[in-house]
Amino acid sequence: QLQENQDEIENMMNAIFKGVFVHRYRDAIAEIRAICIEEIGIWMKMYSDAFLNDSYLKYVGWTMHDKQGEVRLKCLTALQGLYYNKELNSKLELFTSRFKDRIVSMTLDKEYDVAVQAIKLLTLVLQSSEEVLTAEDCENVYHLVYSAHRPVAVAAGEFLYKKLFSRRDAEDDGILKRRGRQSPNANLVKTLVFFFLESELHEHAAYLVDSMWDCATDLLKDWECMNSLLLEEPLNGEEPLTDRQESALIEIMLCTIRQAAECHPPVGRGTGKRVGNS
Predict the structure, then answer these.
(1) CB within 8 A of 223, min separation 6: which ones?
(2) Which family does the UniProt entry place this protein in (predicted)?
(3) For residue 71, what are the CA distances in angstroms to 40, 130, 145, 273?
(4) Where are the alpha helices (DSSP H) in 84-222?
(5) What does the alpha-carbon distance between residue 183 and residue 204 come to, in Å, rounded to a whole number?
């Protein structure tokens, strides 16, 4: 009887889906399209056994091309609810491979709110499987840490941190209490310097620091470690910093001190809204 009741409910939900959703997700009114996507996201999350498959996911994928930003936004937030649950990741693999390029392109959306949520979605994708995103995909997000729009930059900073800075080797666990250039942060500070130099936007160190300030404060405030890298002799087998790398580290260090003292984003970075339809 339980199985019969479950079958009956599923048949009713399928009837609602085919009779209402399939017609209304393309409704002329954007608000109705947004409601449809939001609801199908809830169905897939709450009843993943029946609805989290490509027969339903494809509608969310198609709607990511909607002309209205509010509808594209609902697609991304619906997907975030799914990718956040790691138990559902295996059911999302085909969707990810099929629509990943669209999500990456949405990080440059004319609507800032959409761009921010696209970056946050890619951060969840990154956490579910590092192999899914190519180096080129990641590069497309990395350069957004230099965006003039702070919410976009901060989201990109968190993506960058999760990808390049959040790994810790097992041997690092044993030196957590060491300070200076022997601390676990030493390699992370070097990684930050290398990234800054590779990005070739050398006048924008303040932007990079501000982007990562919320997620990497402990690293950016480890001035003892930065001083040690500049002043102390390299450890055995350690490559010394070049003059160019030392100059970059000094520039980054100055920006972190300014950020800590002034407690506000650098000049030219704001949170203004941009209006657009695509």
Answers:
(1) 253, 256, 257
(2) Belongs to the SCC3 family.
(3) 13, 28, 25, 17
(4) 93-105, 112-128, 135-142, 150-160, 185-199, 205-212, 217-220
(5) 27
Of 246, 244, 266, 269, residue with least CA distance to 255: 266
Domains of the chain as residue ranges with CATH: 1-133 (1.25.10.10), 180-262 (no CATH)
Q: pLDDT tens digits, residue range 203-238?
A: 789 999 999 999 999 999 999 999 999 998 887 778
Residue type, 32: I
- The torsion region of residue 180 among left (phi > 0), alpha (psi -120 to 50) and beta comes to left
Average the pLDDT over 93-97 and give the result.
93
The amino acid at residue 159 is: F
- State how far the Cα of 67 lies from the Cα of 140, in Å rounded to an integer: 22
The pTM is what? 0.89
